[in-house]
Structure formats: structure tokens, C-alpha cells
Amino acid sequence: MSQLSTKHLLGIKNLTETDIQLILDTAANFKEVINRPIKKVPSLRDITIANVFFENSTRTRLSFELAEKRLSADVVNFSSSNSSVKKGETLVDTVNNILSMKVDMVVMRHSSPGAPHFLSRNVDANIINAGDGTHEHPTQALLDSFSIKEKLGDVAGKKVAIIGDILHSRVALSNIFCLQKLGAEVMVCGPITLLPKYIASLGVKVELDVKKALQWCDVANVLRIQLERQQIKYFPSLREYSLYYGINKKLLSELDKEIVIMHPGPINRGVELSSDVADSEHSIILEQVQNGVAVRMAVLYLLAGTKG
């Protein structure tokens, strides 16, 4: 079996193109498994995985939990809202206490950028980053690339526009790294107040006009406006944002080609996407959700192979 070059999945930045291709190929095999009548395989029967979430999550957490159970792993769920973290326990103490119960892998979401990296240097387990603040969300980028490959045959040579709140998005950064390593061209588009100042230095095109971005791309990956991360107002109102950056059926019908619409969820319907686009034949949003389980199964399976 081919092996990953790393013991942890901390970010796409740390992966090689070979690592990414291996994960996507393995995910394709697992996608077949989860579409069978019996969806379980015994691959991780002796592995115990802790899902340690210091931030709220529905989709990612459910997806990881399902992936773990499909691989027959033992699963422990930890949520900080009802834990000793509230009493002032440190991150390393919390995780070491969990590991002392003989846990092999930790899937972690944390609001502080770099928290999984810090953890990987201080505890003895495979660490998987399920989102660290506004930094990275590697499994989302992997499932997005997997979904593009499945829909369009390849990622290399495709033009992908990431549209919306780039400034507060961990999905955007991971996607930029992943798509570029797989040979895609990347453009970011959004209000100037929601684009990080350093963004052009990452080798992406920058566009402020959503119509031009849509006309350029093969795939539009539309991001949610992250109001919960915004301490100040970056635009006058949601209605105004929707007016200038919302994607609706009329906008798509004015293009001289068909494009693929993606969204990491949850969608603010009527803000970044209208319902008639989110639910249209252009959209592969529900495929992304299904592919997320297969990709996370692949990541868990391959990382388990690096133990020792």
C-alpha cells in the first residue's frame, strides 16, 4: 500500500501532490463501499478515534463520525461546551487525558489557528485538523477537489472561482493550496473588504465583479458569509451583499456556458445563493456532502497506516 508522507493531516500546505492524489484515489474506492448495501468495512477495527470539537459543527462532525463508524473504528466524542475546558483546563491536558484512555487518533476543530499543529508536537497520536479558526480546513478542500474530479474528469487545467467571504474562510485557503497543487487555475472574488490583503501573493487571480468571475470559471465554489466571525461590519447589509454578490438563476442564464456550483455549507439561502441555484442541476452541493464521508474515510485509513 502506498503511504502518506506525513503522520498528521494538519493542512493542505503540508501535503505533497502525491499525498493528495493518493487520498483522492483511496476515497474513490471508499465511495464504492458506502454505496453498497452493507456499508461497513473492518479496516480500522482496532483503532480508537476521539472527535474533539472546541467549536460548533454539524456537517464536519457528522461526516467524520460516519466515516469512522463505516471503517469499524471505536469512536469517542468530546465537546468543549460541557467539559473541563470550561473550568480552565489547558488544551494539552484535555487531549492527554483523552489519550490516556488509549485513543489512537484525534480529529480536532478549534477556533485558534495553529492549534492542531501545536497539538501534534505535544501529544502522541495522529492529529487531523477539522478546521482551525480562519486558517485551514483540509478535508473540505480534499472533498471539494474530489467532487470536481468526479464531475469534470480532472482538476488539472480547470478554472475555479472561490466567491464570497475569503477573509474569514478556512475553506478558501485550503482550497487554494489544494487546487493549485492539482494544477487548477484559481480566482477569488468578493467585496474588497472581504479579501485578505495578502491574497494576490498566493498566485490567485483577484476579481471584484461576480459576473466576470462566473464568466471566467468552470466551477464556482461559493462561500458562506461568516457573520459569527465578523467583529465589525464589512458591508452595509446582507441585502446589499446579495444584490452585488448573490448568485441566482438569472445571473447563470446570462452566461454563455454552463458552470458547476459548489458550496461547503451551511448555505445562507437568498444571500450567497438563491434556492433555485442551490437546488438546480448546476449544483453538486449534496454530492459534496456524500463525498465528504468517502474522503474522510480515506484520510483516516491512510493515517492509520502511518502509525508506529
Description:
The chain is α/β, with parallel strands linked by helices and 308 residues long. It has two domains: 12-137 and 289-304, Aspartate/ornithine carbamoyltransferase (Rossmann fold, 3-Layer(aba) Sandwich), CATH 3.40.50; 138-285, Aspartate/ornithine carbamoyltransferase (Rossmann fold, 3-Layer(aba) Sandwich), CATH 3.40.50.1370. Helices cover 38% and strands 15% of the residues. The chain contains eleven helices and nine strands. A five-stranded parallel β-sheet has the order 7-6-5-8-9, with helices on both faces. Strands 2-1-3-4 form a four-stranded parallel β-sheet, with helices on both faces. Helix 2 (59-70) crosses helix 11. The two termini are 15 Å apart. The mean pLDDT is 91.
Write the layout of secondary structure elements.
Blueprint: H1 17-34, E1 48-53, H2 59-70, E2 74-79, H3 91-99, E3 105-110, H4 115-122, E4 126-132, H5 138-152, E5 159-163, H6 170-181, E6 185-189, E7 205-207, H7 210-216, E8 219-222, H8 238-245, H9 249-253, E9 260-262, H10 275-278, H11 285-304
Parallel strand pairs: 1-2, 1-3, 3-4, 5-6, 5-8, 6-7, 8-9
